[in-house]
Amino acid sequence: MRILISAAPLGACIAFVEAVPISLLIADEYVPLTVDGQQLKFRVDSGSARSFAIYGPSYEALMGRGSCSRITSGCYFCPPDNPCDDILSRKRWKTTFGDGDEFEYVQHNVTLIIANKTVHGFKFGLAINYSTVRGKEVDMYGLLGLSFGRSGVPETFLEQLQKRQVISNLTYSIRADGQGPLISGNLTLDDNSAFGVPPLPLSRHARLFKGLIIQVWSLTLLDSHGDPLTQQRSVDVQTEHTSAVALVDSGATALDVSDADFKSMVKITVNALRRHCRRLYLPDTGQIIWQDAETGIYTIKTLAVPYLPTLVYSVGEHPDRMEIRIQPKHYVSGCDTVSCQLDITLTPHGYICLGHPLFRAYDVKFDLSNYQLYVAPHGVNFASATRPRFIQPEISKLSLPERPSE
């Protein structure tokens, strides 16, 4: 920390402590933290305000002795100098995520070490129960929630750090690599760097639902040359108020699109593939892009990947509207010689989540105090950057219902 000393009346000196940014390495969506001397990992989640570790005795009672060593997060075990014999009788909090994962956790005072800074008496959640509706065994995971605090939720990770003067501001950035799977890169807390782009105000729903929510007006599909592939509509969405809201969520692995837009993506890709590969025998559409029956993940033949469209979201309110471009390389992952995974999910109920593909395409900085974020393409020249140009295609209009965040 940098200590600034100023002269005061009567010769007194007042010390002002300015916290320096804290950088944590993200590896496959997890960051490391030391809790009571134990090295644990936590999923970085801008879509949640909750933070908790997995309570080892409960997990191993469910999954068997030694099972904690087989999950990425690892488990927390109360040390002799910080016992928690009463843990099952403490007040419990429950949270359910969009994919059906449900956690029940309690609070525990721990000593947190973050970037060589030691914080005593830090309140952290310990997950003692977990369930899922996905119909298959899923590993539990520790969570680092970086969204807004609100009533009914314990004081957040960022709020506690600010109160302890470990950070000065409720800001952070995620700078991830350009390709998946998942996201890897850097999480910077209290990021005071200039992103070089104007801020994008959050939707009014952000204050109402306490979530990192932006307004979304349309989705356009572009070919590899940047030409629109979907028919343009002459609709003034501003006057009709036909927009949707989207949660900017680093804890989500995919982008949400509507059923109709996904069908357009499939049709465009398959038709382009057939045009360029007329001499090859090509299987039916369902054998080029399909949904895995076991995992529910959409998969595409590797030879068809070059023909996928670029997704262009029109986001923000006038006069702050901008476009967010997600190229195929940002929403395709896990490729081999035969197939790749599409990090796309269908949203039949109109809930939109901008997950990992967004962070592979852009550096994102969150300013919770001012309800705004910054979205800058990877490698942008910050000194000369301006807001990305806004296209006016009003294509594939999103008229979807709204939802609160987790």
Automatic annotation (TrEMBL):
Residues 1-19 form the signal peptide. Keywords: Signal. Residues 29-376 form the Peptidase A1 domain. The keyword Signal applies. SUPFAM superfamilies: Acid proteases. It comes from the Eukaryota. This is Peptidase A1 domain-containing protein. The lineage of its organism: Eukaryota, Sar, Alveolata, Perkinsozoa, Perkinsea.
